Amino acid sequence: MAGLATSLGAGAATNSLAQMPDIDMLFLFGSNPTEAHPIVSIYLKKALRKGAKLVVGDPRQTWMAKRADVWLNLHPGTNIAIMNGLVHIILKNGWENREFIAKRTESFDEIKKHVKKYDPKTVEKITGVSKEKLVEAARLYSHADKAMIVYGLGVTEHRTGTENAMAIANLALVCGHIGRPSTGIMALRGQNNVQGASDLGPSPNILPGYQPVANPEVREKFEKAWGVPISPKAGLKSVEMLDQACGRSFKGLFILGEDPAQTDPNSNQVRKALKSLDFLVVQDIFQTETTKYAHVILPGSSFAEKDGTFTNGERRVQRVRKAIAPLAGMADWQVICKLSTLMGYPAEYSHPSEIMDEIASLTPPYGGISYERLERQTLQWPCPTKDHPGTKTLYTDLFSRPGGLAKFMVLDHKGSGEMPDKEYPFVLITGRIREHYNNGSMSRRVSGIMELIPEEHIEINPDDATHLQIKENDLLSVSSRRGRVSVKARITKRMQTGNVFMTFHFPEALSNFLTSEHRDPIAGTPEYKSCAVKVEKT
Predict the structure, then answer these.
(1) What Cα–Cα distance (Å) separates residue 255 from each residue in 200, 377, 440?
(2) Dihedral sign for Cα atoms in the order 401, 407, 410, 413
(3) Distance (Å, rounded) from C-alpha 185 to C-alpha 177?
(4) Is the peptide bond before 229 cis (omega within 30 degrees of 0)?
(5) What phi, psi does 530 have (nearest 5°)?
């Protein structure tokens, strides 16, 4: 959100899923959609079947990477160097879209000068990707008529995650692949309603609709609507709350539908923080690793037990209809309203449609969205008025930055916060597999899924396995500077030498006991995708 908003104006995907089959060049970066976003991958496969060229940037040889015209097999944490290198090649060969740059962007001269030092030889040394692959990837992307960049958590879950997103925007802008159907940038979100949650103000420095809390006019509007004063100071990010809990300066926490004891990095430290709280409330539909630390557990309601909306990664607001009454007697929104009322602020809504009406009155991108309209159709924001059809493609005329111009950002390669060394010689990459979902609290309760994938494995390259005298399914000890887990080996050529891969679906062999405390200083996103580990046969 922060990266794209800085470069382009809005922290959201620029185009629609339905446009994907018509692209003629796909640049897939830091994403494994056939496993992590299988519905999106259906749209992408349609484009490939129609002849679209494919470039994949990923340390692992994923399903898509095996089928790519160019696989950019970069070292973890070298995303900015790759992007700067591609821009360098495009400018050196005169492949840029000069008309688009002149009319619709600013700060081009600065980046043109800056990327001169990212020549193919230098970038190959940093990233491990050959000069020939870099040149071919730049040629395919710049020469395409309709090229789309699709990226995922392999871009954002680094200490440079926000800057990585900006670097991707630089590449799209230099070629003018934005503001038209079947082009642009699609950022794949981690779960089904991450975009909708982001839109409504959970970040500590914004109010709903990405309106900055530091802006006195914004605060005045919300203070008038809500009848309470609003502090101009930004609050704490979730990771910062846990930091302060360890120091005993943060006392209480209400966690709704989240499992930080399993899904946050450096789990030993997270669990120490949860233990340090004076009062912890957890609301969820199942017991989780986090509920073990709760003083009070409130029963949650699933998607099928409540009315509401999901806003997906293409900004599409979709109606969710209750199939059964909440098993616990109250939907989540009712629980929150009841708590608010008991704590002194009356929250009196009779139906979620009334909440949506309030959202529309205060949040310009949602201004024309109502349950009455959503009963008949889905709508993509921005949808500012009741007669507006919604927006399939952003930035067709102007970018939503001051002055209407997109901005090139000058960025430098920094690398991961923790690099391999003699004691911890491997880079651990974490991610997901198709069969399990997030912390596994739902999918591990499905017997058919557990028959397929009953336990965690660590993926390791055959050459590394031979060197360590490891065989398939051997029990291994994997340790970092923060913790140790035991896990079975899976030997696969999907991994490059020096890299290993684990998921975070299984608490019995939890990769987050190993992941590091490094995080993006702008967004606070943890560096899940790279930390140094040692692998030993037990």
Answers:
(1) 17, 33, 17
(2) positive
(3) 9
(4) no
(5) -165, 120
pLDDT tier for residue 173 given thresholds of 50, 70 and 90: very high
Cα separation, 184 vs 162, whole angstroms: 18
Per-position DSSP letters for 16-80, written without gaps between them: -GGGGGG-SEEEEES--HHHHSHHHHHHHHHHHHTT-EEEEE-SS--HHHHT-SEEE-PPTT-HH
Report the distance separating Cα 483 and Cα 374, nearest Å. Answer: 48
Which percentage of the chain shows pLDDT scores above 90?
Answer: 88
In 3D, which of 285, 287, 279 has the Cα closest to residue 299?
285
Give the residue ranges of DSSP H helices in 386-500.
Answer: 447-452, 462-467
Q: How many CA atoms lie within 13 A of 185 on its CB side?
A: 30
The one-letter amino acid at 191: Q
Phi (first) and psi of residue 28, to 5 degrees = -100, 120
Q: How far apart are CA 357 and CA 293, in angstroms?
A: 37
Pairing verdict, β 457-460 and 484-491: parallel
Furthest CA-CA distance within the chain: 68
- Token pair for 253: 């926490």
- What is the Cα–Cα distance from 262 to 438, expressed in whole angstroms? 10
C-alpha pair distances (Å), 111 with each of 15, 206, 398, 470? 25, 29, 21, 47
Average pLDDT over residues 28-38: 94
Query: What domains are defined for the chain?
Result: 2-188 (3.40.228.10), 234-380 (3.40.50.740), 426-537 (2.40.40.20)
What is the Cα–Cα distance from 326 to 328, expressed in whole angstroms?
5
**Do residues 311 and 317 touch, judged by C-beta distance below 8 A?**
yes
Q: Are 518 and 527 in contact (CB under 8 A)?
A: yes
Whether 164 contacts 5, CB under 8 Å = no
Q: What is the pLDDT of residue 524?
A: 82
- The encoded tokens of residue 293 equal 């630390």
Q: What's the pLDDT at 31?
A: 93
Averaged confidence pLDDT in the chain: 94
Residues paired with 536 in a beta bridge: 477
Segments in 54-180 forming alpha helices (H):
63-66, 79-92, 98-104, 108-114, 120-127, 131-143, 153-156, 161-175
pTM to 2 decimal places: 0.93
* Secondary structure of residue 474 in the 3-state scheme: coil
Residue 280's closest CA among 299, 261, 292, 294? 294
Q: Are 504 and 256 a contacting pair, CB within 8 Å?
A: no
Answer whether residue 310 shows pLDDT above 90.
Answer: yes
Side-chain half-sphere CA neighbours of 27 within 13 A:
30
Average pLDDT over residues 366-381: 96
Amino acid at 364: P
Dihedral sign, Cα of residue 13, residue 515, residue 247, residue 260? positive
Q: Tokens at residue 492, please?
A: 């696969």
